[in-house]
Amino acid sequence: PAIVEAARTHNASLPPEHAALTQDKWRSLTVLDPIVRGFNKNPAGQFLKSKKDDLVTEAFVSDAAGRKVAFLAKTSAWCHQGKDKHDVPMTGKTWQGPIEVDESSGQQQLQIAVPVLDGGKPIGSLVVGLSLSKLAL
């Protein structure tokens, strides 16, 4: 419910400080910036944190337009619209990416993305990175 509510709210009313963000502005923000900290301190971010274990390298929720709603840690990109990890879940399907070294965590991982559903309709996406070293144990 926290994930669905966060995506629903973000879709309905984008905070002005989020509307002003671009990929370049996002990259220039530090992890201590209040905007960045708001994404892991909000209820959805706290929910993600409560579910994290050693297998999870990253997790983030995006709204319908691919903009960040919540995460465990600052992502390398502000918006994932136009990328399969967001666009495929927005069709209601699950997506699995290739094995890669994640830019933001520096770990070899596999990303899985699922739609955030509200009444059966995709309203955002949830991406979770899984540690290959932990999967191999």
User: In percent terms, what proportion of residues is strand?
Assistant: 25-35%
Largest sheet: 6 strands, antiparallel
**Structural class, from helix and strand content?**
alpha+beta
Question: Could you say which overall geometry the principal axes of the C-alpha atoms support?
Answer: globular
pLDDT averaged over residues: 94
Helix count, DSSP H or I runs of 4 or more residues: 7
Number of E strands: 6
**Helical fraction:** 25-40%
Distance between the termini: 32 Å
Q: Identify low-pLDDT runs.
A: none
> If you compute it from the alpha carbons, what radius of gyration comes out, rounded to the nearest whole angstrom?
14 Å
Tell me what the structure shows:
This protein has 137 residues and is α+β, with helices and mostly antiparallel strands. It has seven helices and six strands, in the order H-H-H-H-H-E-E-H-E-E-E-E-H. It has helices at residues 2-12, 16-19, 23-28, 34-41, 43-51, 84-87, 132-135, and strands at 56-63, 68-71, 95-96, 100-101, 108-118, 121-131. Strand 1 (56-63) and strand 2 (68-71) form a beta hairpin. Helix 1 runs antiparallel to helix 5 and helix 4 crosses helix 5 (43-51).
Concise synopsis of the structure shown:
With about 140 residues, the protein is an alpha+beta fold. The chain has helices at about 1-10, 15-20, 25-30, 35-40, 45-50, 85, 130-135, and strands spanning about 55-65, 70, 95, 100, 110-120, 120-130.
Topology:
Elements: H1 2-12, H2 16-19, H3 23-28, H4 34-41, H5 43-51, E1 56-63, E2 68-71, H6 84-87, E3 95-96, E4 100-101, E5 108-118, E6 121-131, H7 132-135
